[in-house]
Amino acid sequence: MSNLKYRLALIAALCAASAWALYPRQVVERVKRNGLFVYDTVQRVPLKRGLDLQGGMHLTLEVDESKGTVANKSDALDRALKVVRTRIDEFGVAEPVVQKVGNDRIIVELPGIDDPQRATDVVQKSAFLQFQITDKTQALDKVSPRLDQIVKERGLAVVNSAATDTAKGKGLTSLFSAAKDSTKSATDSASTKGPFQTKLAPFQFPGVYTVAADDQPLFERILADSAIQAALPPGKVLRWGADSVVVGAKPFRFIYVLDERAIITGEAITDAQPNTDPLNGTIVSFKLTRDGGRRFKNETGKHVQDYMAIVLDDRVMSAPVIQQAIGSQGQITLGRGADLKEAQDLALVLRAGALPVPLKVADRVSIGASLGADSIQKGINAGIVAIVLVILIMLVYYRFSGLLAVAGLVLYVLYTLAALAGFGATLTLPGLAGFVLGIGIAVDANVLIFERIREELDHGKTVRTSIDEGFKHAMTAIIDSNVSTALTALVLYQYGTGPVKGFAVTLIAGLVATMVACVFSVRTFYLVWLNRNRGVESLSI
Questions:
Q1: What's the pLDDT tens digit per position in 36-70?
Q2: What structural domains and CATH numbers belong to the chain?
Q3: In this structure, what are the phi and psi dihedrals at residue 334, rounded to the nearest 5 degrees?
């Protein structure tokens, strides 16, 4: 009885955990709104749908060697992969797939996107890296009266956002000041160090302004105006930062005022590698060409203790302080608060800027929403038909024992779906096929067990002994078949592409669920029945 209680408690715990994993819930996620990434509460769906079920875009990219041969194509694709991922962020889609396939291709899948031209333009753009010094002359503040006048004359500050109601009609300077003062006030009152202290400066450094995230669309419209562009400080450019900060539950964006002339571009970088330093924490080391190193040393020597912005495609990725003149080799200090993955990402960005790899679209497929709906319906129909047929066969052929197998099958379905949701797997049409196949494999384990129990009963053994011997002698065949299937699934996962991997993941999850639901749980059901019917002399099988 003690052993039986533990078995029942384990099954109940697994059912509760599975129900929790499959229950839709509100979570805080990074989402894109009005062109800006913010953290917001969204409805989390446990099982995400893949491209073939939802519809969208599928692109296959290759290195374009029409203008010259690329020496190391695999490394070139590694550099391009980070750039492509950055471009995909512009779509703001949920669960995009950007992965390298083999050594010569990149696969891009965008669920819910049906604009092939836009997708092609975005992924084919090349990265452009620049090193620019942040402005320390307060040039923007000096021209702000003129900017205010232009904003009022042209009616550029008319907005609908509630966050900017107080700035209506007050011009560009008021919006900058409101965002900056709000951020500083909230940061001053914080007991823990904020992003200004950990990454940039205690609060702010010259040439950087904070802008309320709700005001970003307004700023972009104002700065795109030709009169505003003409009135901006000569020799200066304004660039948005890639990062944002949340102060008092309100997101803010950084906007940088930089020297227009770049001290050097990514064309001079030959390599960049992440590393860790005992004194400085996480760093990124980079190497320059001989001419680039000479020019970089001369320029950075003039700007010691100034801030140097690393700008990728007009977005400021980071702005470290120049500690000393940098020659052909230098490093970017990210600090002890940064992890190695952040350094790896920055190193990839630097290498991508150093060697922009031209890409061409080898294959482009647009999948309509109707195809996705058809795929979902066909997959569901196949699963329902498979389950109904299996249930009927088990009940008719094995009777009471078949009923226990059906109960185990219900647990199999629950455990498999929960495992997929727990690992964040994306459900695809091949995944549904693997799920349906797993139902047959799960029942096959019970068939092996039941047939062995029948043999033991035919030999004149008692019901309890026959059940014990049936499970014992069938386990070898069940484990052998499951291991061989698992090895095949692992090979498919290792060398297959997205849809094939989806099939393999579902199959592996089903194999694990089979051992728990259709072996362990069914045997527990038998033990419960035997405990309630002590001395039973027959078994409906």
A1: 555 666 566 677 777 777 777 888 888 888 767 77
A2: 2-23+368-532 (1.20.1640.10), 56-125+359-367 (3.30.70.3400), 127-355 (no CATH)
A3: -95, -15
